[in-house]
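Dear colleague,

Thank you for sharing your sequence with our group. We've completed the structure prediction you requested, and as agreed, I am returning the results in plain text so they can be pasted directly into your records. Please verify that the sequence below matches your submission; if there's any discrepancy, let me know and we will rerun it promptly.
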Amino acid sequence: MKNIIKVWHEIYDDLYEDADQMLKPFLESIEAIKKEHFNQENSSDQTWYKDAVVYSTYGDLFNTDLNGLKEKLDYIQDLGANCLWLLPILESPMKDAGFDISDYEGIRASLLGLPEDATSEEKNIIFKAFIEEAHKKGIKVIFDIAMNHCSIEHEWFKEARKSKDSPMRDYFIWSDDTSLYKEARIIFKGMCESNWELDPVTDTYYFHRFFEIQPDLNYRNPQVLIKMTQALVNWQIKGVDGFRADAVPYIWKEEGTICENLPKTHKVVQFFRAVLDYLKPGTLLLAEACQPPQDVVDYFGDDNECNGAYHFPVMPRVYKAIAEEKKDAIEMVLHPSFTPDIPKDSQWFMFLRCHDELTLEMVTPEERKFIFDHYVKDPSWDFRQGEGISARLADLMDQNLDRILLANSIMFTLLGTPIVFYGDEFAKGNDTAYYDKMYKETGYKDTRYLGRGTIDWPDVEAKLANPETLAYKTYQGVKEMIKTRNHFKAFGRGDRSFIDIKDENDQVNKAILAYRRNYEDESVLVLQNLSQEEQHIAILELDEMEQDLLGHKMKWQSGKLVMPPYGYYWC
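Please find the predicted structure tokens below.
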């Protein structure tokens, strides 16, 4: 409780004389909630996320709704994933795939198989059953929550825009002109021309960092922080194991800055964490911050901000390394000078693809052009005027099984906690029909919809039953990697040391990405051939091992290990 109070004062003491009184009712409610819902000792592992394999999916696109997803929990469990990340499920007009939230306290009725006029009680019954079934199968459940902005359809905004004197007016940022926050960049290049939108009702502008249908929340108003924290707590009570906090870097605004990664943004995140930990330690708070690692590391704080964060810059470097057929890009991005050490209980999360584009923000202009030119097979894959690529993993890898599995091997062994984006485990491709559908519905030419789309389960199940299909071969390869990873804590908790493999001329073979993962008495050597050419490598410590941990037969020739094109071994 002391930490909650301390952080609150650090945020608001310089803005309000009565900051204490503003917080008091909230503290009383939190104390009552703790006694009623969280009065038992929490004996579970509070760093469970370090050993997790996350499966990310939409509640509606995976199998119609959460009821359909509940029926498929056995599929997720059989794959080996033990954490389910639900992409936006909260109430929304769905102009930005659910990241435009119109009610932080409710789930969309359609996701629960209910009519729009369903009661909160009816919704809670179905969601509770879903959470309980997932937990029975050993699957944690986290979901997305946009912390920086809401929807123009949220009651807060609808009330705020009625009048300049509205009691909700200060929940948002208003101005008579667009001169404020000039240094704040336009995030959606090519789709938004300004961070300000004129509201005709009061003839004033409101601030938005994303689409104009997503007004930014004003955290200078203490009631906004309290309301948003209450929303997290209410879902915590309902059994949710964590939250992916969307758009965190933009929370606090200061004139004369770029309005990203500001000190008080970190204080707000510390407040969220302090409350969640006070009620139920081990509740995951995962930062979505597409920023350089030096800035993202700050979101771990001293183990008092987010428990986890995405390592955005490593993702494009994996694609670059495979395209170049050399390891330099990966080793560079994970060098301590680029990726600093993180606190003991914190964790990087790694992914190959996600619901968003393959972002190229965190690479140099030269790297951006190289990756874009190499992987964009169709102009429609462009997102944000060259700053991103909208495509599924299988299409980026030309439906090549060896390259798909190589990329997965890197993801499952290189860094932190891996995230499997739904469908990638069976090589799902781009969905142009879904893009066309969403363009008609939203009016936005948002090419990210190419990488989403529904799963045709009869078709997928037929392919998974046929050993000759790409879907079957990809699925079996990914499943074996997850199974093996789950046997070794070294992958999620251990350190990593890169190894140079040298050729007969004592030159480093750049095509071989090799490293060792160590944790306590575990030590796993990972060898990966980034080249389309066979590589012969001398590695005496394996002593002509016949089979690796994945069950791959290992071929030796003249005392050297023969690595097939795009091959990988875990030893």
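Summary note from our side: Residues 19-37 form the longest helix (19 residues).

Kind regards,
the structure core
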